Amino acid sequence: MSDWRVRAVRASKRPFSRPAGGPGPADAQPAPEHSMDPRPDQPVEPVTLERSVVDAAVYRDGRRIDTPANLADIYRELPDRPGAMAWIGLYRPAEAQLLEAADRFNLHELAVEDAIVAHQRPKLERYGDTLFVVLRAARYLDEAEEVDFGEIHLFVGPDFVLTVRHSQAPDLSAVRRRLETDPDLLALGPEAVLYAVLDAVVDGYAPVIAGLQHDIDEIETEVFGGDPQVSRRIYELSREVIELQRATRPLLEIMKSLEAGFGKYGTDDELQRYLRDVADHATYAAERVDGFRQMLQNILTVNATLVSQRQNEEMKQLAEAGHVQNDEIKKISSWAAILFAPTLIGTVYGMNFEIMPELKWAFGYPFAVGLMALVCTGLYVVFKRRNWL
Hints:
The protein has 389 residues and is α+β, with helices and mostly antiparallel strands. The protein has helices at 3-11, 71-77, 95-105, 109-117, 172-180, 183-186, 190-225, 230-260, 269-349, 364-385, and strands at 53-60, 63-66, 84-91, 123-127, 130-141, 146-156, 160-165. Strand 1 and strand 2 form a beta hairpin.
């Protein structure tokens, strides 16, 4: 066994980490399949190859001819069945399972390493006569109003298909049932399985796009309604749209690569039409997602403009209120100055001194009152000219 396989087998003794963002046992309904994840507080049991096998069957002419009790029977009997195809579905398998499949089907070590590590971008790679395809599935969670992403790896060989699923969506058992009810399509071989999985993933984007469109409509209403929390929601939705864009955009390259190999690898004409239909749907989904990202950018710009306008209006109102307050302060200060003048004069003449020039003057009192009136009138005229009164 090569060094990379030895390292992977040793690594399988450690707990297998779930993909980021994928559903866990606490927030999703349990899948019908079993995971190989050992619990840290329990001893690690020997790996049993069938524990994370969703379904494994052998097909000929589009019909199931055998459902082996274990994968070893498939590996052993498939070479003796000309014209037959094995389809093995795994759900969050242990590394030892993938290494065993790699040995049996002669899978390239780089592709197996990608399937073990997961968290790959959507892509299509050809290793000899085997295709390795990575897909990002998505589903819209209505209650949480968010998008949940998953990951699927497919190994497509001349007489086998190995699907490695790291998420609950999409339900590949539904894809298997669909193909088994259409033997003519399934009889086209492993490429027909690849088409069906691609079709399921792309069709799964439709409800996601509808959910995001609904969210964007709500955000537009909130933006023009002045909701202060709308900026945070725009940011969170933008992140989901970008993630969906990363899932849908590479699909176009995958479909172009498949279409480029139609003639070279002798793809059936009917299957070509099916794959082109998937390519059309993928293009539509990618364009809608691109449009969503542009819409959210425009909405964010409009929201920033509206927030700025509201702030300017508030500043204007504050300025007007300050101007009014200044006018009131000027009036109060002016009247206080006018009233202070007679108070000052009256205070001077109210001092208890015997020697004052005006105390024994016959016109002393009229002079004091006149002085008060003159000073008050002078101040009033000055303040009035300055528009303080």
